Amino acid sequence: MATNYKHPGCVFDHVAASDIASGDVVIMGQTIGVAITDIATGDTGAVQVDGVFEVPKVSAAVIAQGESVMWDNSASAFDDNLATPATGDISGCCVAAEAAGNGATTVKVKLNVGVGTKA
């Protein structure tokens, strides 16, 4: 193994700018992850950047399985790919692991590390 290998890269260390609860979506530049544990302001904690997670969804969004989804920063929830990104939103960061229709408040998404675009 290469002498400079550190770890598989599924988890990033993240310094919290504000308190983060386990399961919260965490924005890191153009990448989205999910906090594995609670992280207090100023502390460093683990954020998973790979895998499928059940996360908040914009209630009115209709999302098909496999559809690219967008993190709506102002709603703190994922929206469908027809939504127009506003400042702080991240598009192309995840795909829906299963469908979620109008009225659903959560969706399962597959995180796509390093491919998002921040508006």
In words, what does this structure look like?
This protein has 119 residues and is mainly β. Helix content is 0%, strand content 40%. It has strands spanning 11-15, 25-28, 31-35, 44-48, 51-56, 68-72, 77-79, 90-96, 106-111, 117-118. The strands form 2 sheets. Strands 5, 6, 7, 8, 9 and 10 form a 6-stranded antiparallel β-sheet that branches. A hairpin with an 8-residue loop joins β3 (31-35) and β4.
What descriptors fit this protein?
mainly beta, 119 residues, six-stranded antiparallel sheet
- Estimate what percentage of residues fall within beta strands: 35-45%
Question: What is the H/E order?
Answer: EEEEEEEEEE
Radius of gyration: 14 Å
Summarize the amount of helix as a percent range: under 10%
Figure out the total of helices. 0
Number of strands: 10
User: Structural class, judged by helices and strands?
Assistant: mainly beta
Low-confidence stretches: none
**Biggest sheet record:** 6 strands, antiparallel
Mean pLDDT: 94
Could you tell me how far the N terminus lies from the C terminus, measured between alpha carbons in angstroms? Answer: 39 Å
This entry's quaternary arrangement is single chain
Shape: globular
Would you spell out the secondary-structure blueprint of this structure?
Blueprint (H helix, E strand, L loop, with lengths): L10 E5 L9 E4 L2 E5 L8 E5 L2 E6 L11 E5 L4 E3 L10 E7 L9 E6 L5 E2 L1
Antiparallel strand pairs: 1-4, 2-3, 3-4, 5-9, 6-7, 6-8, 8-9, 8-10
Structure summarized in a few sentences:
The protein is mainly beta.
